[in-house]
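Convert to structure. Protein one:
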Amino acid sequence: MNVIEYIKYQMADVCRSTDRVMNDLTDEMFNWVPPGTANTISATFVHYMYVEDHFVQMVLQSKPSVWESGKWADKTKISKVPDVGEDWSEFKHKKVNIKPLQEYKLAVVAATNAYLSKINEDDLDRKLDYAGKERTVAWMLIHSAAHSNVHIGEIAAVKGIQGAKGWFI
């Protein structure tokens, strides 16, 4: 398996894992506020989908995000996506519908797959500045998949706390 195949596999696995963990959620479960400082599933989901969108569209291609170009803020009624290093407490009590966010996920996955269908080995080594450090395209894509998988685990745990099937159980 070469690096491009590996990255495509990882991104497809994120999509499959997301579908698996999200497939039986209700709006009530999606917005349920867990005890302590854990985030709602809705905040976690919209965050990691936006990060993939941001990385692939804006950072790697210098294009507008799917969020912006598709006017997803209007469709989801979410004016500000929870971002890294920010206080997510405002989002914690926001009630959002799961359906438009699942549609956003489909749009992000389609845009990511379109990008992945065009990359080649030389593209993977292209250097770019991200968060004040030099990164490669390959690093950004692998990091995106790893980042998403962490959050998929969080969603499974919050589902489990609610008594629903988290991942395997």
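Protein two, convert as well:
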Amino acid sequence: MKSEESKTPHPRNAERRRLFDNIGSLYLLQGVNYLIPMVVLPYLVRVLGMETYGLVAFAQSFAQYFNILTDYGFNFSATRSIAQCRDEVGSISEVFCCVFLIKFFLTAVGLTLLVCILLVVPRMRHDWAIYMLAFVAVIGNVLFPVWFFQGVEKMRYISVISGSTKAISAALLFVFVHRPADGLLAVAIQSAGMVLAGIIGLAVCLATMHLDLQWPSWDSLKTCSSDGWHLFVSTASVSLYTNTNVFLVGLLAGNVQAGYFSAAEKLIRAVSGLIGPINQAVFPFVNSLARTSSRAALDFIAQCLRWMSGITLMPAVAMFLLARPIAVLCFGHAALGAVPTLRWIAPLPFLIAISNVLGIQTMLIFGLDKQFSRILISAGVVNIALGVPLIALRGAQGAGISVLVTETVVTLTMILVLRHHKIRIPLRQKTAV
């Protein structure tokens, strides 16, 4: 007769099963994230026209700065904190309360800043309603505790809630948005979907996790703020060579060029999204693994590097070679102006896959937060310095060239920093003797 101990699964095996279950759940969400934009985006480009679509993309990219402000790096720092104490209800409750209190404060700061900007900048004041509606999505993002579900490794909740609300928003877009004059309505529907997801996500979190909600201490708030600071700076710096490009193109080259760049970038980001579920699920898992064995964590990181680079290489090559038919198929002949930009940024999924593993899954896990932050700050400065003159000369293509150079610099710098700190990722697979 087998003992009770033999029937109990090994803790490490249980953790791996949970990891793959989370990856599966996130890929289900990613499938929805692929399907919906690949149907909705071409529709919006066609019915709104490139100029109105460019304005919508410009407003949403501007709102993304407030998402970065209110996220404050918590998608990594709070996830990491909860992953380290997820069996202690008191500790995770304290983290939960601290994060939400700080997020609500930052939302108020963001809204105040937005109103001031709209009053001061004539071009934006003219379309103030679309910017305010785009900000509503920020509120939805604040309410949805994605960072908490990641920390306790309950990614199914994210999949079901986010997928369902996006499907509802997509259906409403097809029903109500039919012409260029409906640009404002398109933004309103998408933002409302984010708020609905946030409310449901928060309600599910409170109903299932039985958290002890209380006003956090000043020391806890300071610790939470300090933990998120370097990652907030890093995330803000990333926006200087991701989100800022759409904003700069719209500012320097007009709404049509912003539409071209946004359309090309969304295709590339969709390919990069192939590794998104792995990144989200692996981060808390590797964190837990590194606490017991650095070597085991590095071995697993090496596997992730092989998976992610392999998953993204062929789509990146295909995007470069087939840029024209892909652009026409997705957006129609009005998007032919996006083809050169699409070719410039086609290698990004491969580069981003590598830099995500080196940065998020390795540097952050091994305590190189400051170095990680410095690399991304420098990259943001490089992108702005290159982007402004290149966009002025070549519009959307200039932004594509700038972001490609920047991502290449980021990846190479991370390799050098890890070597300097003698963190070696064993890329060669072990062979059985």
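The chain has 19 helices and no strands. Confidence is low (pLDDT under 50) at residues 1-9.
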